[in-house]
Design a protein that fits this description.
Elements lengths: L6 E6 L7 H14 L3 E5 L2 H7 L2 E3 L27 H13 L4 E6 L1 H14 L3 E5 L15 H22 L2 E6 L6 H9 L4 E3 L7 H13 L5 E6 L8 H11 L5 E5 L11 H19 L5 E6 L2 E6 H6 L6 H10 L2
Parallel strand pairs: 1-2, 1-4, 4-5, 5-10, 6-8, 6-9, 7-8
Antiparallel strand pairs: 2-3, 10-11
Bound molecules: 6-O-phosphono-beta-D-fructofuranose.
6-O-phosphono-beta-D-fructofuranose (F6P) binds next to loops.
């Protein structure tokens, strides 16, 4: 049966990402443009359970586009994983006459949204917001471009000191399960070797590459490592392993950490967030549900939430090849 949407709620969930505020702004402004009411939910699903809501008008979304983090805050709610928690959330939505929910987050948040939709037949649309870029059905997630540029800027600075001291640096970037930041920041910053969760290049190859680099006259080297790389060794263990096997190297480790999640969003992320927010509202107006907004070849699209959660965003073979060619 066709339901008429009058009020939309929006929340941010999971790890924050630059551009989430721009996405909130877009949902709020698009709602206003289409004469709908909009409610912001604080602290993701936990705020849904506790009824922590705030009415948001187009004017409340001012000066949000350039702000890092998320003004609605974010959380990983254990209670929402229980049916009791989800029932409380549903009751709060009904009590506040909310007809649909926009979830800005990653695959964990979408799984929660999907279960909620199935249990209560409540309209849900997902917007991919995570620095990891690991969501199937979209070329880009909100926050990835900014995080990538933050990482490259930091690695460039490490390159300066590595080169002054003739040192080898292992730089760890974020990406527990995905190597998009590592691979692209590694190529962008001219790393000698890149270790990612998707590929097991083996420790032997690392030694061979570094030895080759040294013999070819390189005086400093950078190895970019994703948090969840496949070698099974953490970045400090990797550094020790290389020190033991290639004692000629003076090795240091640098972990970029959560700085990659902060900062003002890039223009790319601001525009992407604006497009995705509007598309989410338009899908709801069209009576669509259980979908994620995505972008492929610069075209907006809608992807089944279940697919977005189940499938993997595959790394391009061409980019993998480029990283190998560039490290010669
Ligand atoms: O946002 C995704 C991510 O950055 C991963 O790459 C990382 O492993 C994880 O979040 C860490 O998040 P937290 O410290 O908030 O648990």
């Amino acid at each position: 049966m066709k339901k008429f949407i009058k009020t939309i709620a929006v929340l941010t969930s999971g790890g924050d990402a630059p551009g989430m505020n721009a996405a909130i702004r877009s949902v709020v402004r698009s709602a206003s443009y289409y004469k709908l009411e909009c409610v912001g939910v604080y602290r993701g699903f936990q705020g849904l359970i506790e009824g922590d809501f705030i009415k948001m008008t187009a004017r409340d979304a001012h000066h949000l586009i350039q702000k890092g983090g998320t003004v609605l805050k974010t959380a990983r709610s254990k209670e929402f994983r229980t049916i009791e928690g989800r029932k409380k959330a549903y009751k709060n939505l009904i009590k506040n006459k909310i007809d649909a929910l926009v979830i800005i987050g990653g695959d964990g948040s979408f799984t929660g949204g999907m279960i909620f939709n199935k249990e209560f037949d409540f309209p849900v649309i997902g917007i991919p917001g995570t620095i990891d870029n690991d969501i199937f059905g979209t070329d880009y997630t909100i926050g990835y471009d900014t995080a990538l540029n933050t990482a490259v800027e930091a690695i460039d600075k490490i390159r300066d000191t590595a080169s002054s001291h003739n040192r080898l640096f292992f730089v760890e970037v974020m990406g527990r399960d995905a190597g998009f930041i590592a691979l692209n920041a590694g190529i962008g910053a001219g790393a000698e070797e890149i270790l990612i969760p998707e590929e097991d290049m083996g420790l032997e190859r690392l030694l061979i590459t570094l030895e080759k680099s040294r013999r070819s006259g390189k005086t400093s080297s950078l190895v970019v490592v994703a948090e969840g790389d496949k070698t099974g060794k953490n970045v400090f263990e990797l550094a020790s392993y290389v020190e033991e096997n290639l004692p000629q190297y003076d090795v240091r480790v640098s972990i970029l950490g959560h700085m990659q999640r902060g900062g003002a969003p890039s223009c790319f992320d601001r525009v992407l967030a604006s497009r995705m927010g509007a598309k989410a509202v338009e899908l709801l107006l069209d009576n669509k549900t259980n979908l994620m907004v995505g972008i492929t070849n610069n075209k907006m699209k809608a992807v089944d939430l279940e697919l977005a959660v189940k499938e993997h965003h595959k790394m391009s073979d061409e980019i993998l090849r480029i990283s190998e060619i560039m490290s010669v």
